[in-house]
């Protein structure tokens, strides 16, 4: 008998009919002899509806009260799913985050889980009940309701799985697993049976929005086997696991990309210690996250050129700040470019294998794609190229690194 | 500085605009120097929407889970009202029933309050905050969410007022007080400045649906001064208080009536001990509440006629049960009548004053109204008459007992 934590997102519980479908699936797991804890999100659209009500009152709602408001979304779902399970003949009991003591810090709207009291849930499981827990929410030490921020239900599920020492944490979503790249860009993209936590982290942060990144970190830290699978179809999905469990020697697991990048460059900055800090400090102070950073000796003597990328939404503000900084530093010129994308190769095999970078660069060169920036990490190589080359670049790399599957798929929606 | 508990019902918080209006009113009380605890219901329509969702799954939703579901309604309101108060510059903090430990028994959907932990609320009040508490809900000893049943927010407010030893519990509603009778029937109806708890209980149970009856009982038991007033208009409403505080010597406070009655009669029942029990036992077993009961010696020797009234909704089922009982007892005939109404005079002064009954009967006789049944209590006389005489009867009695006001009013909606 295994103990399984299953998490269903907002789309999977978006209507009474879908809640009943989820109930049937949960019941099937339990009928197979497994103990099941279900973690659910708010019905799709509900969180936005509640935020809309709050915004009618305050442009920036009081964080504590916003959490009281938003946490009702998941509470509605746990009650309805428990009813649907009971109606299907499967004993069930619902719990809010407060009721199972999902203890968090007091950072309203983006709280972090500190501890979970698994005792109550254990008693229900032993009594043969399915336990349905509200994701996304917790309580702080004073009993105030907190929420974990968007996508926090994934983290709730992993935290509960860790606390209960569950055999597996299954994240049901609207895709049937993790793919070598986005099938909408490369129809030959192949579903991966397994991927390591580190690879998944790189894939997630690079735009494969299958799992919330914090939940992957959490699962890796507490060594909770995590599986992504479809709540609508069948199949075993993708297991996210530890490096030692991966037998095949694939060099590259997948190709991630991001259309949300924008590039900023300051030309001719006097080359002196502290320049990077002087340029990036004001950007960080404005809460703008910087992704890639490159500094080069400039053509002109005793000066340097400095380039970095930000999220495209932050571009106008970043440019404004940079203009001020450049004037202050006596830099020659500021350039901005929003017509770029980032393509990344991800794979733990990269560590032990030279030549991946050169194959990547030659593949792109053969297609006539000019590389604007390069950045590397232990298990990732990212390049920035002109936006128009995104599809061409991804497909060429997908083929060059032997990722093409035999059958095409387009189930990533 | 007084400590006031204010309760606003679903209509008063039925939209963001109305919530803002309530916030302005609460702020005004606080600005006058009072400490204010606000108890709110779900936004009007929300509870029905949630019940509708549950019914799509189960005709009779699991009671425990229905409470988890329904309690979100008030939780939404407390968050929004707290935001509106903060937006208006009035520090506020919201609490669910669980958070202020409104301890109830475990009778889901109709729980009764056992205890309230006032400590947390007290600390907020001392810190100058308005405290906003979700009505209608609590928790049992195991931490399960419970609800008090429809109208339970009134009871929550009174219980909180009792626990905090509040100076007054104000129930804001869509009427501006308690009237001598329904102004839609008698435009000369007059708003009462004061009424005793006992009179209010009789008025409430007889169809003046201003306050939930349990909350009036509760207020009487814990001696919480209760005031009914309009959340839309101004004015001091009606204070519900103790007999010793009432100075005027009004014999009759008001005239209540009910259109929801139906009458059942068994003719020619053998007159033997236990007949009343044999007739009413099966009715009670079917959970049908019986109101008035009359037993008379029948014209035929050694038999008796037995008459009682039930709610009109229960009439078909009661008639069916009574037919079976009558056959079993060897009774002569069963009669049913749904074309009746009940009119009641209510007033504590009645106790010390003979002649009220005779003035009532003669007034009705002068209008040619035939009395079908009579029932009396310490502070009430009720008569059953034909439905068509309702308006005529109420108006004639209103005049005969000197209740007519100088100005007409029609604010009871």
UniProtKB/TrEMBL annotation, chains A, B:
Coiled coil: none annotated. SUPFAM superfamilies: ACT-like (SSF55021), Carbamate kinase-like (SSF53633). Keywords: Amino-acid biosynthesis, ATP-binding, Kinase, Lysine biosynthesis, Nucleotide-binding, Transferase. ATP binds at residues 7-10, 173-174, 179, 184, 209-210. Its EC number is 2.7.2.4. Pfam families: AA_kinase, ACT, ACT_9. Substrate binds at residues 47, 74. It catalyses: L-aspartate + ATP = 4-phospho-L-aspartate + ADP. Residues 264-339, 345-413 form the ACT domain. One of its GO terms (molecular function) is ATP binding. Pathway: Amino-acid biosynthesis; L-lysine biosynthesis via DAP pathway; (S)-tetrahydrodipicolinate from L-aspartate: step 1/4; Amino-acid biosynthesis; L-methionine biosynthesis via de novo pathway; L-homoserine from L-aspartate: step 1/3; Amino-acid biosynthesis; L-threonine biosynthesis; L-threonine from L-aspartate: step 1/5. It is an enzyme of class 2 (transferase). One of its GO terms (biological process) is homoserine biosynthetic process. GO terms for cellular component: cytosol. NCBIfam families: asp_kin_monofn (TIGR00656), asp_kinases (TIGR00657), PRK06635.1-2 (NF005154), PRK06635.1-4 (NF005155). Belongs to the aspartokinase family. This is Aspartokinase. It comes from Thiocapsa imhoffii.
